[in-house]
């Protein structure tokens, strides 16, 4: 398949989509989409793998909740103890098909399971020393987020960590407007048209619901995590690590 065929053109035609869905069309171009839409995506992936390597214990599991096309698992696989197993969970069967293909292409041979599940219904994890949610919690309905984080904390091994990357709101309206402007400027630099930017914004409006950074920090702390630290921040994107 040509590189051009995997280029994100999901929103390059009028009325391209209603509410955003992780469909087969999106799964096919997702890697290009996130690399052009998420600032420093490659560096965040490297950082998550680095931290996962330090927190993952031998003979435990790394869970990637919202594993999409498997990029995070592939990066972690390169640096982590070979006795560690993977579980990838995603609601989209199309994403999991792409994930399995990418894991095979990358030569991932360690034990791994890919599971179709809706995180709005909670999650079951076992013997996990690391849980990753990369741009996932923002798609969980706010009504269910506290329960989901509670599920993760309760089942996570002692001294295990949750690595969380999220799009966030500014703490006040002034910075929120500025950060959004800077973000759309970045998308223009990455060759997205005004129509593509506008249509994706409309498609995500009722699907991706960001919290403020402080709200995410308070959610993690109130759940019981001993340590909560910001490891990445770029305008309206942030990375947090929380340790049980």
Brief description of this entry?
The chain is α/β, with parallel strands linked by helices. The chain has one domain: Rossmann fold. 42% of the residues lie in helices and 22% in strands.
Question: Care to describe what's here?
Answer:
With 244 residues, the chain is α/β, with parallel strands linked by helices. It has one domain (22-169, 208-243): Vaccinia Virus protein VP39 (Rossmann fold, 3-Layer(aba) Sandwich). Helix content is 42%, strand content 22%. Strands 1, 2, 3, 4, 5, 6, 7 and 8 form an eight-stranded mixed beta sheet that branches. Helix 2 (41-55) crosses helix 3 (71-77). The longest helix is centred in the C-terminal third of the chain and has 17 residues, at 173-189. The model has no long low-confidence stretch (mean pLDDT 93).
Task: List its traits.
single chain, 244 residues, alpha/beta, Rossmann fold, 8-stranded mixed beta sheet, 8 strands, 42% helix, globular
CATH domain fold name: Rossmann fold
- The average pLDDT value, as a whole number, equals 93
| Low-pLDDT segments, ≥5 res | none
Secondary-structure element series? HHEHEHEEHEHHEHEE
The computed structural class is alpha/beta
Distance between the termini: 44 Å
SS elements, strand count:
8
Number of DSSP helices?
8
Kindly give the count of domains: 1
CATH homologous superfamily designation: Vaccinia Virus protein VP39
The largest sheet is:
8 strands, mixed
CATH architecture: 3-Layer(aba) Sandwich
Using the CA coordinates, give the radius of gyration. Answer: 17 Å
CATH class: Alpha Beta
Instruction: Report the sheet-strand fraction.
Output: 15-25%
**Which overall shape is indicated by the principal axes computed on the Cα atoms?**
globular
**Helix percent band:** 40-55%
């Amino acid at each position: 398949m040509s590189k051009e065929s995997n280029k994100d053109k999901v929103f390059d035609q009028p009325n391209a989509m209603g509410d955003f869905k992780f469909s087969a069309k999106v799964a096919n171009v997702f890697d290009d989409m996130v690399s052009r839409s998420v600032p420093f995506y490659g560096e965040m992936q490297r950082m998550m793998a680095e931290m996962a390597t330090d927190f993952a214990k031998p003979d435990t599991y790394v869970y990637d909740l919202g594993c999409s096309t498997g990029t995070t698992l592939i990066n972690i696989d390169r640096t982590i103890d070979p006795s560690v197993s993977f579980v990838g969970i995603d609601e989209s069967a199309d994403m999991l098909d792409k994930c399995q293909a990418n894991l095979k292409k990358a030569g991932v041979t360690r034990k791994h399971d890919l599971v179709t599940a809706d995180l709005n219904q909670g999650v079951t994890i076992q013997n996990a020393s690391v849980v990753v949610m990369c741009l996932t919690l923002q798609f969980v309905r706010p009504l269910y987020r506290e329960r989901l984080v509670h599920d993760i904390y309760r089942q996570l091994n002692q001294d295990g960590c949750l690595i969380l990357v999220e799009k966030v709101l500014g703490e006040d309206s002034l910075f929120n407007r500025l950060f959004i402007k800077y973000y759309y400027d970045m998308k223009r630099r990455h060759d997205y048209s005004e129509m593509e930017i506008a249509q994706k914004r409309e498609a995500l409006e009722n699907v991706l619901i960001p919290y403020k950074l402080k709200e995410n920090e308070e959610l993690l702390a109130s759940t019981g995590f001993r340590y909560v630290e910001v490891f990445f921040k770029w305008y309206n994107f942030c990375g947090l690590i929380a340790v049980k």
